[in-house]
Amino acid sequence: MKRREFLRKTAGASVSTAMAPLVFPANLFAGSAPAFTDYKALVYVLLEGGNDAFNMVLPVNRQSDVNAADYPSSYDSFFASRGGVLAVQDADFTDALNNKVDVNGKLDFSLGNPYPDGTSSEPTYRSGFYRTNIGVGVNAVMPELAHMMNEGKVATIAGVGTLLEPLLDANNDRISGSQKPNFLGSHNTQRRYIAVGEANAPNQFGWVGRLFDEWSPGGVSVNGSDVVAPNVSFNGNDHALLGRWNSPLVLRTRPSGYSNSIDQVERDARSSIAELPTPRPFENLYNRMVGRSFDLGEKLVDIWAGAHAFSASTVYGDPVFTAPSLPILGTGYSLRGSLFSQLSAVLKMIEYGATPIEGVPRFKRQVFFVKFEGFDTHSAGTSGSTARLREISMGLYDFQNALEELGLEDNVTSFTVSDFGRSVGSNGDGTDHAWAGHNLVIGNAVNGGLYGDFPDWRRRGPQDNGGNGKIIPKIAVEQQLATLTRWFGVDDALNDTLFANLRNFPQRNLGFMKPVT
Amino acid sequence: MSVNFMSRLLRAGVHIVFIIAMSFGPDATASQPQGSCSPDIDSSHTVDASTDGLLVMRYMFGFRGETLIAGALHEDALIKTADGINAIFEQSGCQYYLDVDGNGVIDALSDGLLFVRWASGFTGESLILDAIGSGATRTTAVSVIEHLNGAALMSTAMAHRFLTGTTFGPTPELIDDLMSSGYEAWTDAQLNAPSAYDEPYTEADPNHLTYLERYMQIARMIDPEYYGWNSTTIEEYTVPRLNPGDIVPVFTKGPKIFPSVWFEHVLHAPDQLRQRVAYALSQILVVDGAAQGATSYYDLLAKHAFGNYRDLLIDVSFSSEMCYKLTFSGSRGDRTDIQPDENYARELMQLFTIGLHRMNLDGTPMLDAGDKLIPNYTDADIEAISRVFTGWDRHRKDGSCGGYVGTSTDTYRPICQVKNGNRHDYDEKIITLNNSGYGTTIPQDLTPHADTIAVIDMLMGHPNMAPFISRHLIMRLVKSNPTPAYLARVAGVFADNGSGVKGDLKAVVRAILLDEEALALDPLVAQKAKEPILSFTQFLRAFEVSFIPGYERYRFRSDFQGKLGQGPLTSPTVFNFYDNSFVPNHEEFRSGGMVSPEIQIIDEQGITLMANQIFEAVTKFEINSHTALNGGRPKDRYALSFEEEFAILNNSIDHDYSNLASAAYREKAADALIPYLDNKLTGGNLSTDQVQPIKDYVVGIPLRGSEKSARNVIASIIRLIVATDAFVIQK
Question: Which residues of A, range 27-56, sit inside 8 Å of B by Cβ?
């Protein structure tokens, strides 16, 4: 029997993990992991390009409703500062859309399509917004998100961004001597800081990768040995997933690319070439992947073949992750489908990972990276965002419903981050790179609500960095991430190493996750 | 004695130049390690006793540093430093080669002397007298000469490696050409080769069209009626050449055929180096698209590939495609309630010219007194520059400016000012570039055009540009991890081409390719992961890719971005396919501070997708059995030729396919084909350990012994070699 066949036939261990100790001496893995018996997954949704979150969730309190001190963060203040590129038509914001939802706040087509049947997306984007019971308004094209907010499944983190330490005190006065992160407004730099979990430290490994480094004592992850790594990306080799010892599994969403056309004998020939020892790093790197690619292909084909067929449907009554037809959609152009296909693929992997083997889930902890592109809306800020926000809303809603169908709604939490928020001020038909934005956290384990405050929107106001409404964050993105990892099973001590600046902030846990029982 | 011999030799003015005309590398023997060595130690394209010989002697006597090279370099030497020369000697191929007498020890008084005498033209007894060391395995003059002549001036491995970085794939003709002309002459010939952009346009090479011209020809082939050609003839598109400002006809429903045009150009254009540099530039000045606008944009990159970076920046900044991609179309400077669009102002600096923070000429970061990075610009600078790019929009096909983006946009013509410039911000713009002293103040009331030129000239004057752009180009062409010294030498040429001109890309490319760090590379040691799309073009060129008979164009419609992680102008964002600072998950990369950007898009599934792409090509697209000729409808339309492979195979099996049913004949076939294909695809870089499983595979396949069996043998050897690190990783 050839060595490879021997390894293939060794029960319970795939080739690559069996070889891991040969590649890395075991003593390099100094980490430790809690003895998990349950399954949890985090779904890291990167809205790439800098989401204009200020048009995604909005304040609903009017000038007339609030005292003068609260005016700066009101809807009217936002409207006055933005100067165009608004989520509504005019200062008299309408919540007429609420007439198109049922008593549960769910979009109800028997009450009529809320969107104009047109070929232009802008009227759709600006057809009003939904008032939710957590005191925020939701963009007209995101009724499913509004519905989930009303159900208490969504935490909105307002005014969050990259920080080294608090910059503003409770009165929005600048804390003297406090430092800003470098290169604000640089896409890749700011994304890197979020991926690392520490501003100004671009060369550190990603927080997800480092988490699984820690949770891989002796070189074997908390999930045991499997070619499916604990950190999986469906859209590129993102730095967040890259650890000192752990590298992500990077996959495409289309199963047609999972199986290899070559036969087993040829695979074995390739494997024996790839397994030749080489001291040279580039070659070594490549050869390690060749071996894994075969094991992986077989496994993915199996996972896809065995995946659950969902009976849950979209608000339009179609199977989950189906884009409605153009006239109904009212966006002028179809949904990209990239988020749909990624979330659909993540579900299949979650189902595989959570499947009980002898009474315990096959895997214990996984992080899935999903990237949805096209949020750099310097131009076409409203029309260009319509289909994307619509896809986020529908996609996350379908994802949540599908999880409930699998009975995994308590086990999976999704969250969004983005490069940065966009300027409050507009450039006429779009907005520019800025700083703070709003992020979302979604799932059954979430304590729904608004966390943080809507900012002081005034240009050249105390929360503006410059004159164009580049809002200074009052919550660090690490506070959001650490709250999530706490739920995921990370203790405070480990959180302090994952997020080096966390200790600079008063709140280590923002409280948007239900206590772990 | 030998030193006296040397001095006598030099005093006597003996200067015997001995050019070796052999064009193949040394025969592989069991004891010979992989690798090769050129007797032309200093890469002067000659072997000379008084230079190469002297260097060999001094090295063997243990001289290092300045004493190794002082007065010992040929006037045409490309490798001119002690470190460079030493790196050559340290390569395993040279360690083997310079053990001339084969006794396992390198010794000046035997091996060195033999080398010098050989290089001086000595033969017979006078070559070996008193110069054979003890325990020698080569003891006769004939065996010594055979050994020393066995190395070409440039080995095929060296030529293959150089061409992998400078073309879209080495071919036997290119390898011969490079080996006979040498690095410098070959590079200069490429740098001065005719191109589609020569002015005035001559009809010397009417088949060598610009990208846009070929695009239009193909569009017309696809449907002469439909695409809005009407009364327009193809000649109106191609002659005279398009110049900025020319009004050209626009067809409104053009097909997205840029990838097909791109493949045709890069696979067949004789000005390969220009095409390769244009492709590298397309990864700095990133746009995406597949229609006419992207095609004419790509022409700008190819046109200026050996021109000045300033001219390229100017054309790019006025191009319709960039105006659209970085969204300053419609940006207004005449209103106070809204701000100008900041997108181009920011990315022009971050990605196209100076980068985020100050760096030294050698690319190392400059730090302030507090050990912090020094930002190149502030938000205030971005805001000031954003006011420059106001009032601009794209032409409509009726000649008017802006106001509509869609099918009636004229995507070839440079951008225009809306409403006679009424939307431009004419006020003074104070740009300090973070108080660096490299900023400028643009006075009020310059023309919008002059404003842009002022910004570009300001950026041209910033010292960051030289190392920033030079590093990009080195990483795309030669290696992922250039030493600071290498980068500094190239950046020095970027800063001043020797005639006081900054940004001379021809000089920069020359400096990159002919630097000793590029030339002293051990052909066995990998320098970068090959870009997947370049692996694919190299594979196609190795098998003489051509049109399918009766189909006078290519069709490349695969989703290369989805499959291979990159394609021609398919980067989803202006940040290119990969991050130049990507550190892969590997101890040596981490501890050595090494990056490998391309590895970011080579992943487990990508390997499968590439394998499937190659599988389809070798099993379905051979010219004599092409699936498209048999009713198949493949997405991509191109044909490969295995003519050479069939000939070699046939020779090995006595011209009788039925012999392939026998394992003994399959072994003969493998022994003949594997070295041939190894040379062709990797420059002979497969190790014997890597060859064995391929051979075992071929011997082990059960075959009936037909023409199909022969095809099967050829296809499987190709697939296996293309999947090895020897092919995928660029040496």
Answer: 48-49
